[in-house]
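Sequence and fold
=================
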Amino acid sequence: MLSPAQCRAARALIAWSKRDLSEASKITKATIAGFEAGRLFPDERTLRHAKRALEEAGVLFIPENGGGAGGRLAKPTSASIDTNETETVQYEEYLKNDAPPGAGG
């Protein structure tokens, strides 16, 4: 679900304090501190709230897949600019041939 290390790392990725996570998840700051320190193990519902708040703030959690569970920043959904410089882009205004015959080019 969510490990203490993932929680700490996720907060660091988005520069959130324990207070920020507490406000976003409606979990007490003391519960977050205890969980991250390994002294407290909240129920699954509480961990879901914390994880959801972090995901909504831009963290993508990576499941255990042989390399260890982790987290990273999610790719922004608004990033739609194509930066592939190996492709030719043809703009409609340049499609008509308005050069005189034999101009070449």
Summary: The first strand starts at residue 59 and ends at 62. Residues 2 and 102 are 68 Å apart (CA to CA). DSSP finds four helices and two strands in the chain.
